[in-house]
């Protein structure tokens, strides 16, 4: 039986719980070359494409948010652009999964607001194919919604996590629905997803970044929880929770890493982003540990070895 949450806890409470564990966690910066001095951050975990391990990352100059998503392979101690591999222009925050035998890849598409060109409009876009170079667009999300993620369920259906915000949803909630086929993914389906209540306090928000099917059929959700300080600085922490798609129950959120676990990070291009982790992906090692891949301060990409945050839910 899933140990369920009894109500939302604030970031401050979750931080106190995390720091009380006194974990000695230290991240490692990933070095990228061949990007003309641009920042690489908000990466995926490594995944296999045509027999080669690759990472997708957001590549961005310091004076813009119109970034590219590029694919990198490791050469010695550095990651370099993969030759003969497509690049996605005007895309942020890549993600990937596999559904029904296909690679499903996506990110946040950005473009200038037609009325206020200095502002950015955005939506989540989804591609599918046999491999990276075969990817083709098959779905788009509602305008102004990020953090839409998909996962293949044990029965073959597809779980869809959403992140509505504004109006009754505040700064951002997490929703969930299911579809039978990738072609069923539409803005209407996404906006009608049922909200998972009790995850965030009214003045905080969060989203799903990557999904893991656990041995017992529960869904392990890697995500982020965020809040503003009194000075209106943003604070993003890496978090997880577990979701039962049959009962709609969720476990309590727990923080798994914070900015303090990463040292010697390049300064954020915006002072409001000095305390930001954006979970990209989690590789479970099978020995009680996992490797978290994350963006730091909207400036760099790091990884860190942590206790596997989903182990305890597979023992219940």
From TrEMBL:
Write the lineage as a comma-separated list: Bacteria, Bacillati, Bacillota, Bacilli, Bacillales
Designated name of the protein: DUF1861 family protein
Pfam families, A to Z: DUF1861
To which species is this protein native? Alicyclobacillus cellulosilyticus
InterPro entries linked: Glyco_hydro_beta-prop_sf, MPT-1-like_LmxM
